[in-house]
Amino acid sequence: MDRLIYTALSGMKASMDRQRVVASNMANANTLGFRAELLDQRPVTLQGMPNEARAMQTAAVRGADMAQGEFIETGKSLDIAIANEALMAVQAEDGTEAYTRRGDLSVSATGLLVNGDGRTVMGETGPITIPPGANPEISPDGTITVANLAAPDAPPAEVGRIKLATWQGSPIAKGLDGLFRVEGGGILPTDQEATVQVGALEQSNVKSTEVLVDMIDAQRLFAMRSKLLSTAKDLDQSGAQLMRLG
User: Fold this and answer.
1) What is the pLDDT of residues 81-94, one digit of tens each?
2) Closest Cα to residue 116, out of 188, 34, 172, 173?
3) According to the model, what pLDDT value does residue 1 have?
């Protein structure tokens, strides 16, 4: 009997974990550059007979759907959409290098180039700083230039190049802050072939209709598995009654 209860309880927990992930994806359906989170479920078997017949599940967000989202034209000079599978390097709150696809850039009050999450954009040599009063322009390869205000006829000066990193072949994980990091620490190498589309933004790759179906499916599975607990209770009571009668 306890095997049935164990199975039902494990399934209910898995359904609740799945509902939380689906709810997070649904809430970020309009978040720029968002990558849909994927739930990884693994069985945890108790070792030693007779307990090996009982297994719970452990679930955690360990990956994301890296499919490209739709590009929307904005016409703004500091909006960029990464044209391939590369990730843009930003500075996380702890000062380490992390990665994102969100490209709605602006210049902060302190002159730092930041994205819509307030994350400082990293160049190949560190955080990118824009001179006061300058009007930055971004090239398709991520190079940022500003006009020389002191010499208007002089060619634009380069202030940095946005680091576009390749994650292919490197184990990366998505954190609770929505940023990607290299598992175990470290940084990703620069993708020299990566380009950006200026004046456009990448939307979330979450498909609202699909996550809605996933939510309904998870709720139904939770209801079915909770019914198993009621069935186990009824069977236990019936067995106890037969034992008294016998």
Assistant:
1) 999 899 999 999 99
2) 34
3) 47
* Separation between Cα atoms, residue 191 and residue 84, nearest integer Å: 10
Residue with tokens 């106890």: 240
- Cα angle for residues 170, 171, 174 (degrees, 5° grid): 125
* pLDDT band at residue 14 under the 50/70/90 scheme: confident
User: Are 205 and 34 spatial neighbours (Cβ–Cβ below 8 Å)?
Assistant: yes
131: number of CA atoms within 13 Å, CB side?
Answer: 15
Distance CA 238, CA 144 (A): 75
- Give me the percent of the chain exceeding a pLDDT of 70: 77
**pTM metric for this prediction:** 0.78
Beta bridge partners, 181, equal: 173
